[in-house]
Amino acid sequence: MQDQDLTPDTDDHSPKSRHSPKSMLLIAGAAIVAIAASATMYFYFKTSDKMQANAGDPQQVAAGKIVYQGSCASCHGKALEGQPAWRTRKADGKLPAPPQDKTGHSWHHPDEQLFLITRNGVKPPLAPEGYLSDMPAFDDKLSDRQIWDVIAFIKASWPADIRARQKRVNDANRQ
Ligand code: HEC
Predict the structure, then answer these.
(1) How far is CA 31 from CA 24, 35, 42, 118, 148, in A?
(2) 62 CA to middle of ligand 1, Å?
């Protein structure tokens, strides 16, 4: 017997009624897909909004390693070892690039300062006005996300005790 509920709409070429169990299933399926998609979007934007350097996130660390090798290794060293005699100013009065591993002093800084140094270079308020430095500003070369990634990579190179000490610096800075 024909279903009485067939849509009169001529551009519905479906032989099935809108209310057949099969189409209800399709509608329910579409609704589930829509909810899942918006949940995914929500979490994506939520986590990407919260820019931070998480040394415990292998994906972020891997992304940061690529940034480091491409943009930082030429000065800070392939193995984060810095330039020779990095504590002694050169003839031009500028400092060589310090290590980024535990032998340097990046870990004395909270994450936000490492971010600002990388994005803006060594500029006030983190250095005196007119301070001369070879550390480039990366604001026009790297996205904020890439800068957080490279900081995550640098942090991941530090042993647990150094990471714990830098975490205390971070916590104090955020209070
Ligand atoms: C052209 C060479 C050069 C490149 C490339 C470079 N740096 Fe530097 N960086 C320096 C120098 C030199 C200093 C020391 C700054 C000073 O005190 O004058 C420095 C300092 C820093 C500091 C502060 C360290 C501290 O102990 O206070 C951070 C953080 C830093 N660089 C991160 C990076 C990151 C991340 C990259 C890659 C995205 C990078 N640098 C690329 C030369 C470089």
Answers:
(1) 11, 6, 16, 44, 36
(2) 20
